[in-house]
Design a protein that fits this description.
Length: 589
């Protein structure tokens, strides 16, 4: 049973944690703030800690740092749970030492899965810490001093050879990774690597089994690994990246010649020898020997997904030395750009990117990068395996780039001559040719500046014309609004009556059939008044297009003139003195 410590100032979440942890059958203690959690941890260390961020007395970040500063809190898994989902808070949590950062609200199933995984790893690390604390002796030969690193399937210790007093590195697999299916190829591969002669491969010195766990003993490289270097510097220079790539390509050449495929090439497995400055290829995963090139689909993926080749995920599962070249290309891309374009928090997205994403050329995102390095990385990242260079070709091309920094390569098999700049730097260009080149550059710049001036003049002219057009249109609009509408309309002065709203007005109209009411936009008619009932109504000319007979036309006009209220024909135009707005009672329904 593991002991879990949780802290949150929200009572509902404390109850939630109690339910989850009791379901898991674990011993637990729930605290209200960070200080309580720290005191509880010092009183009795926990196997896992869950911390909220915003808590009184001591927040989650400070509590996380304080726990990490205790001897028992160095390796304990710490999960921060917070409502803050911005990148700044997440970065602060991870910088404080948290192993994971979960956003509220957290689903119960999600939290349970996380806790189970962390508890499993915590139990494993606890066993490793026991080996370190007791300075255990492995097979009576090697004394454990400290942990160098730990992966998903193995741990690397710094050990001392008791007989020679030399400092060495010992990689020990987990018990779950030491089955019979793995032990035989593991030892066979280790024996093959032991026979390799290369200054760019970490030497294997011994191998064996300790407490049912497989191990190999290697030379100790004290300069750290490439991942640590990238954490400090973020990006590497093109020259430094090329030097690293050349060393590792030479290591892969030796590997592939021996029938070995590394399949776990990543920054963590590239070590730096501080004495010689060389980069050396190590293996903290499982190097595989291939009698065939087919990988079973149900084989456990030991490689880090962000660096593996797309064929790793294909249905056939076919891999080869070209798969290692792809991984080296990803590593180079990351070193120069500071970004792994395939990396994602979700493994499925990472796999999809390897299968489908073609990252932009390094030179397109950074003009300082030479065409040579940009093209060779692109060639190494080709999706089809057959389009990638082999290790020997890659090493040769990278060496050419190192020796000729301005070399321009269109593809792996089309390397152009040195540029004038590179020849000038290397001292291969005569003085007169240098002067001629300078004069040429000045002419080019002068021509460019002249063209830019003409472009500026043309732009200014177009802008002036555009502004003039705007003012012309604006003037026309203002004239229409404020002047033309005030000019008297052409036509006779007529008293009109709207057929819809009944408004009566006095207007100059040339053609009443084309006029509309200024209030509601409806049809206007002549304002008529019935002498029999005094009804005021609009007289609207009826359609006469289909009538050809004069009598029929007159009859139609007479019919339209009848009073709509009483039918009387005694109607007349409304006198000017009766101009008014008709009420609802005068509207024609």
């Amino acid at each position: 049973m593991s002991r879990i410590l949780a802290a949150d100032d929200n009572k509902l979440l404390r109850v939630f944690y109690e339910d989850v942890l009791s379901y898991l059958g674990q011993e637990y203690e729930i605290c209200k703030n960070g200080q309580e959690a720290l005191d509880a941890f010092k009183r009795q260390a926990a196997d896992l800690v869950i911390l909220d961020v915003d808590m009184p007395v001591m927040n989650g970040f400070d509590c996380c740092r304080a726990i990490r500063n205790t001897p028992e809190g160095v390796s304990v898994p710490i999960v921060i749970v917070s409502s803050h989902d911005d990148e700044n808070h997440i970065a602060m949590g991870l910088d404080a030492g948290a192993n994971d950062y979960l956003i509220k609200p957290v689903k119960e199933t999600h939290l349970i899965a996380k806790l189970k995984n962390f508890l499993k790893n915590s139990s494993f690390l606890k066993g490793e810490c026991d080996l370190i604390k007791g300075h255990a002796t492995i097979s009576g030969k090697y004394r454990v001093e400290k942990m160098i690193g730990s992966g998903a399937h193995s741990t690397v210790f710094q050990v001392t050879d008791i007989q020679s007093n030399k400092t060495l590195a010992l990689k020990m697999l987990k018990e779950s990774a030491s089955s019979n299916d793995i032990s035989k190829p593991f030892f066979e591969t280790a024996a093959k690597i032991r026979e390799l002669q290369s200054d760019y491969i970490v030497k294997i010195l011994d191998m064996g089994q300790f407490s049912e766990r497989l191990y190999i003993v290697m030379e100790f490289i004290d300069g750290g690994d490439l991942s640590e270097l990238l954490k400090r510097k973020k990006i590497l220079s093109e020259h430094e990246t090329a030097k690293m790539a050349e060393d590792i390509a030479l290591a892969l050449k030796t590997f592939h010649s021996a029938g070995l495929i590394h399949l776990d090439l990543k920054p963590e497995n590239i070590l730096i020898d501080s004495a010689t400055g060389k980069y050396k290829l190590a293996d903290f995963g499982l190097i595989t020997v291939r009698s065939t090139t087919t990988m079973p689909l149900n084989a456990e993926i030991w490689s880090t997904l962000a660096y593996v080749a797309p064929e790793y995920f294909s249905e056939e599962g076919v891999v080869s030395g070209a798969s290692d070249i792809y991984s080296l290309g990803v590593t180079m891309y990351q070193c120069i750009s500071g970004d792994n374009p395939f990396l994602s928090e979700r493994p499925a997205i990472t796999m999809s990117r390897h299968m489908n994403l073609i990252p932009p050329l390094l030179k397109s995102s950074n003009s300082i990068v030479s065409s040579g390095i940009s093209c060779i990385v692109a060639d190494m990242l080709n999706k089809p395996m057959e389009l990638r260079p082999n290790a020997e070709e890659a090493a040769r091309k990278i060496e050419e780039i190192i020796n000729n920094p301005e070399i321009v390569t269109k593809s792996m098999d089309n390397v152009k001559a040195l540029s004038s700049k590179a020849r000038e730097i290397s001292g291969q260009m005569p003085v007169e040719e240098v002067k001629a080149q300078i004069r040429k550059e000045r002419r080019i710049r002068a021509k460019f500046e002249t063209s830019q001036q003409w472009k500026s003049i043309a732009s200014a002219g177009l802008a002036t014309i555009f502004i003039a057009l705007i003012f012309m249109l604006l003037g026309y609009g203002l004239n229409t609004i404020f002047f033309e509408q005030k000019q008297p309309a052409q036509g006779a002065l007529i008293t009109t009556n709207c057929s819809k709203c009944g408004t009566i007005d006095r207007l100059r109209i040339a053609d009443i059939t084309k006029s509309k009411c200024g209030k509601c936009g409806s049809t206007l008619g002549y304002a008529m008044k019935c002498e029999s009932c005094n009804k005021i109504f609009p007289y609207i000319l009826p359609p006469l297009n289909n009538l050809k007979d004069k009598n029929a036309i007159m009859a139609k006009l007479e019919e339209a003139r009848k009073c709509p209220a009483c039918g009387s024909t005694k109607v007349a135009l409304l006198p000017n003195t009766e101009k008014k707005k008709a009420g609802k009672k005068n509207l024609v329904k």
